[in-house]
Amino acid sequence: MTRDSSSREAAAIRVRAIFEESARVKRAFAAEAADAVARAAEIVAGSFRDGGRVLLFGNGGSASDAQHIAAEWCGRLSRERGPLPALALTANTSDLTALGNDYGFDTIF
Fold first, then answer.
1. I need a surface site. Which of 24, 43, 79, 98 has the fewest CB within 10 A?
2. For residues 86 and 54, is the Cβ–Cβ distance under 8 A?
3. Residues of the chain below pLDDT 70
4. pTM score, two decimals?
5. In the prediction, which pLDDT does 1 show?
6. For residue 88, how many other CB atoms are within 10 A of its CB?
């Protein structure tokens, strides 16, 4: 076995371990949180049905996730339909940084 193939084999073993751990975490989450996730989905759908809107937020990468799902709901997602009223509170960085500077970042949300 060459050094390159040995290195590649070791990398493949690490990659497989990462995927296996990811699958384990997802199975555990599904077992523990499926009811809570279904309830959250009911609340969101009920808000849209009742003429309400959904406000989303997050920190770091989760702020990007919030903006992404708001855009998907306001857009068409995977099929043609009317827009759903959703807003990512993290989308206005001027507001976030001004409020953080004036009142402290722990008070933003």
1. 79
2. yes
3. 1, 77
4. 0.70
5. 61
6. 22
Residues 49-70 have pLDDT tens digits of 999 999 999 888 999 999 999 9
**Residue 67 neighbours by CB distance under 10 Å:** 19
Round to whole Å and give the CA distance between 35 and 103: 37
Closest C-alpha among 36, 34, 53, 32 to residue 44? 53
CA distance 109 to 59: 10
Closest CA to 59 of 98, 106, 12: 106
Q: Which residues contact 65 (CB under 8 A, 6 or more apart)?
A: 58
Q: Which amino acid is at 34?
A: A
